[in-house]
Amino acid sequence: MTRFVVWSVAVLLVVASGTLLLSKPLAESLSLHEADVRSVAFANSVVAPLVDEGVRAGRPEAMAPLERLMRARMADGSIAHMKIWTADGLVLWTDEAGMTGRTYDLDPDVAALFGGTGATAEVSDLDKPENAAEQSHEELIEVYVGFRATDGHPLVFEAYWPTERIQHDVADIRWQFTALGLVSLLLLALALLPLALSLARRVDRGLAEREEMMAHALSASDLERRRLSQDLHDGLVQDIVGLGYALPTVAAALPEEATAERRLLEQATADLARSAAGARELLTDVYPADLRSGGLVAAVEELADRQRRHGTDVDVSVDPRLDDSLAVAQLTFRVVREGLRNVDKHADASTVAVSAALRGERVVVEVRDDGVGPSATIDEPPSGSNRGHLGLRLLRDTLRSVGGDLTLRHEPPGGAVLRADFAVLGPTSGVPSAS
């Protein structure tokens, strides 16, 4: 939900910035269009009825009504300047002193308006000779409108609109567009919020259920190991030890001349002693470590000490934070135990490096050795001298069930690396003990 809210706010900010940038040219275009429409209406409804043959001839009595009306219209400041042009570039009338009756070169787009009712609008070019009076203004909207006098003669009306109102309109339009976009997105986000909350809760429940199932599976595995250890200890190991105690008694009861039989019994007693020691070591391997009370670091160190007794130098580096989750500690311990077991049986290594670290929301466990390297991949079935890696395949299946994986590869210049990578499982303090 935090990520959803953060991303929603980020999208709103991006949309707001983009809307402000994109709405400016759109608002300016709409403002120019509005000035265009106003000029067309003024030219056709106000100016055109007052321009007749007398005005075109420049007679004062004909120019007076036009002069009064145009000056009155400019009095409110909504229009800065106005001109009326003839097709040959003559200024028929203007409010600017000294320009009426003068002739200028017309731009092609302005010349094209004569004889029609079209219009063109743009920000004024104050460098033009006919715009000398407008140079006192910072910026004006210049609109040309084609119209016809009362006698049908084609003329062009030119109006200069101040940009203050246009800029105000641009600001209003920009903020209206931005507010519309933001409100729409905000309403959409609010509408999606219950769905996002429901999906987040469902995902959390699914993850919690998966982690709980994984924790129970690991606990069940530990429970089965305890039962198997108990059965071996109370059954097979006791029988071997009892038989080892019985054979010397049988050997003592033999006659003195039965030397060959006595040697066979002594050899069998020694073999039974080795078998009993091997069975006890097997019990130690099978019996799960007490990760709840002793912790992962101590359990891994115990595995390393057992390997060191076999003549292998073992370096251990375990992140103590892995003890925060029992499920994580159990999986990590299983990876390390399986890795050291394979090193002991197959690697013929002199040094081993064990590492278990928390990297973001992933756990990475590695067992590196400098031995002969793996004789087969995890997936390769047993054949000939290759005994296969059934234990590793079972462990990889467990890791994949929690979104992880297990790999075994060569380590140049020699040796192997067993690497496990899986997602962090939540704390499992509520998982029942497998004792």
Overview of this protein structure:
This protein is an alpha+beta fold and 435 residues long. The protein is built from 9 helices and 10 strands. The strands form 2 sheets. It has a 5-stranded antiparallel beta sheet. The chain has a 5-stranded mixed beta sheet with strand order 6-7-8-10-9. Strand 7 and strand 8 (362-369) form a beta hairpin. It starts with a helix and ends in a 12-residue tail after the last strand. Mean pLDDT is 80; it is low at 428-435.
Q: Please tally the helical runs, counting DSSP H or I stretches of 4 or more residues.
A: 9
Side-by-side strand order of the widest sheet: 2-1-5-4-3
Biggest sheet, in brief? 5 strands, antiparallel
Question: Globular, elongated, flat, extended or rod-shaped: what is the shape?
Answer: rod-shaped
Under CATH, the topology of the largest domain can be stated as Beta-Lactamase
Question: N-to-C terminal Cα separation, in Å?
Answer: 38 Å
CATH architecture of the largest domain: 2-Layer Sandwich
Strand content: 15-25%
Q: Please tell me how large the radius of gyration is.
A: 48 Å
List strands and helices in order, with pairings:
Blueprint: H1 2-47, H2 53-57, H3 60-74, E1 81-85, E2 91-94, H4 108-111, E3 119-123, E4 140-148, E5 154-162, H5 163-253, H6 259-286, H7 296-308, E6 313-318, H8 326-347, E7 351-359, E8 362-369, H9 390-400, E9 405-410, E10 416-423
Parallel strand pairs: 6-7
Antiparallel strand pairs: 1-2, 1-5, 3-4, 4-5, 7-8, 8-10, 9-10
Helix pairs in contact: 1-5, 5-6, 5-8, 7-8, 8-9
